[in-house]
Amino acid sequence: MTVKSNKGVILKAYPKGIPEVVNGLGVSEVVKTNNPNYKVGDLVYGSIGWEEYSYIKPDVSALPFILVNKELLKDTPLSYHASFLKLGGLTSYASLIDIGKPKEGETIYISTAAGLTGQLVGQIAKIKGLRVVGSTGSDEK
């Protein structure tokens, strides 16, 4: 694919296969670039189109991408980095551990246990030795 831009970045997006372009947060591999901040083969996390290839305009600094450390994640699926290792995981961990400061044997009630953050709080709480009680909005959840 030819790009007529001196600073554009083309990314190969993960996952792929959605017939319409939907924007969201994801992990991508840089497959072509003229931007000095990125090189071919870099993995980046940020706002992308969920499509096989995305063209990122030269003003990419308006929506910065975070470089993914390949060495630290070599045995971790990329999908993990796009979900619980980012926003949901940080929110869950910081809220429970840094703010809640739970002690082993305590009981925690999670009012939204069906969502990403609630599920992770419950799992972290169990690992820390808490009794976990969770609820959801419906029986289906």
UniProtKB/TrEMBL annotation:
The keyword Transcription regulation does not apply. Coiled coil: none annotated. One of its GO terms (molecular function) is oxidoreductase activity, acting on the CH-CH group of donors, NAD or NADP as acceptor. Keywords: Oxidoreductase. It comes from the Eukaryota. InterPro entries: ADH_N_2 (IPR041694), GroES-like_sf (IPR011032), MDR_fam (IPR045010), NAD(P)-bd_dom_sf (IPR036291). This is Oxidoreductase N-terminal domain-containing protein. It comes from Rhizophagus irregularis. The keyword Disulfide bond does not apply. Residues 15-57 form the Oxidoreductase N-terminal domain.
